[in-house]
# Entry
Amino acid sequence: MYELSSLPTRDRSGGKLKRRVAILGSTGSIGRQALDVIRTHPDLFEVVALAAHSNAELLRSQAEEFSPQYVALEKGSPSDLDAMSYRAALGPGSAVRLASLDVDVVLNGIVGFAGLAATVEALESGNTVALANKESLVAAGEWVMELAGGPAGSPESRLIPVDSEHSAIFQCLHGTHEREVSQILLTASGGPFFETPQERLNHAGPEDALKHPTWEMGRKVTIDSATMMNKGLEVMEAHHLFGVPYDRVKVVVHRQSVVHGGVVFEDGSAVLHAAQPDMRLPISYGMLYPERADVGAEPVSFEATWTFAEPRSDVFRCLPLAVEAGKAGGAYPVALNAANEVAVERFLDGALEFPEIADVIEEVLERVPNFGSADNLKSLQAVNEIDRRAREAALESTPLRESRGEARR
# Structure
């Protein structure tokens, strides 16, 4: 049965028991919005640690405001962290060190494959993880869920989903039995190109792909939304988080981005979760679970029309590629994620055209049998090796735009 876990809750009698949090990726989109929530409710939270990749200036500003005991900067110099009253870690792996601190919740908002090590460290240290890093489950889902203690929502689980869709499903599952669930529903906005004719996609540049119709997200996640790779990754995430087979995870396009997910039951009924597209809602729920807090989000309007449609998988090939990689298991999800990260970066750099993102991923997946043994991906070393080989293969598949342009002439 999916039920409320026994995380520490606030003393309703007037006590000041605060939720002690470590925020990894504090200068990114998730981290900044998490701090907005904490800024609104300083009586509910104590910021113990902040970790950032390279934005030293913003990290210093956050540290001055929230007074954490620890900060970490993955890329920078000692002078970036001088003259502050906190314990500092600097260099690659510094965020992972903070994941092992004695806190109530580690919010992992690190973007991409880099977040896996922090998820593993936090869970191995006995911490509860509010997970916004979907790549942790894409690359090592079975291992991570084993470390977490079971499916999200089960009594022993220490993993709380923060992605808006998975948070929605998580909430819809409370009080239900696994045998009652027929289907998990994942909604997708469809991104900026869902209604764009296929022939125009060849001319879509980064500036077009970054114009998301409803959400404000980081650049990589926004491109993933444009290709619908984000939904493929989320299918894999849902499979591992909730322990459901791939054929029971259904993706529907919901352009209004108000219904974020749901559950269809064996008797034909469904429970849907609706909220305005505001990431502060799932972030606050992830940090405060099983409690809620008013973060200033607008209430749901029931006057607008909600529509649902099938994904255009014939055009947006990343979604079916991801689902097939997930079903294949082993090294395939790791390789897919690595190839996608490389291809997205190359697209943003101007070295790839939009449809070629899927081409690169498909080429890398065809080479997976050459990447070596993937029988046991339950160590960072094993997962990192597959990731490295896939990135090398992806780079080999993305020649410079200049040479491609000359070839077309």
Residues 4-14, 401-409 have pLDDT under 50 and may be disordered. Residues 185-234+309-408 form a domain with the Rna Polymerase Sigma Factor; Chain: A fold (CATH 1.10.1740.10). The chain has 16 helices and eleven strands. The first strand starts at residue 19 and ends at 24.
